[in-house]
Amino acid sequence: MHSALEEANSCIARDEVPIGAVLVERDTGKIVAQAGNRTRELADPTAHAEMLVIRQHCEKLGVQRLPEYDLYVTLEPCPMCAAAISYARINTLYIGASDPKSGGVISGPCLYEHSQLHHKPQVVSDLMSDECGQILTEFFKKKRKLR
Amino acid sequence: MHSALEEANSCIARDEVPIGAVLVERDTGKIVAQAGNRTRELADPTAHAEMLVIRQHCEKLGVQRLPEYDLYVTLEPCPMCAAAISYARINTLYIGASDPKSGGVISGPCLYEHSQLHHKPQVVSDLMSDECGQILTEFFKKKRKLR
Prior knowledge:
Strand order of the largest sheet of chain A: 2-1-3-4-5
Radius of gyration of chain A: 14 Å
Shape of chain A: globular
Largest interface: A-B, 40 and 40 residues
Number of strands of chain A: 5
Strand content of chain A: 15-25%
Structural class of chain A: alpha/beta
Number of helices of chain A: 5
Distance between the termini of chain A: 32 Å
Oligomer: homodimer
Largest sheet of chain A: 5 strands, mixed
Order of helices and strands of chain A: HEEHHEHEEH
């Protein structure tokens, strides 16, 4: 989660909402992909950190499924990313801060409780949640001051 | 929806699940982007038809939002695509066949009923649903015979 936080921090310089994700090989603990949000830079509303690491590593391996990998993300995934995590067959999803406003895993639609999601990853939440939430709070506080 | 069906048909030759999507400019009725599923070809579990047309046109315009556009898709969008359609601020979503097994708009998590989705497109369902459903039924029937 430290590496995911570094990715979140790197978003700030790009004026992207600071959320970071890291994909880890379960057997070795090796980080195989990491990203922060790039929706502004790429003009792509789907370019969330989780989507970028999944797409990056699937493309590298030439596969659509990553059952031997875990995903660490600083903020609870939104419904789009929660579904993509299921489709990619991620083994365990580690979440930093929860996101009652826009989340889709433990908030709102709680996607993994529905049969329409055919794979349900293990979910571990509240991992370094203070640090993960604080970087977002400070980002939006500065944004409001600039207005 | 005829053009979306053509895109779905074009999936069959690529051995992709035949679902097609078309993005239409509301003012002119002009098709600005169209795609079929490419998850196999691109080794990308997020490469659903809806995601591809949204990403394609956002990139072309350099924007993250498409409020002046409608989306036609042959099958009810999954939760991932339903959320992406919301983030892209699509005006009206026209759905062919419904998808109780994997859908996320009128089935299962019914995403637009949750406050976590901040934009709720207009939804028109059951548009040429027989034709849109039939192409999928036939695709999977042939798949089963080949096994």
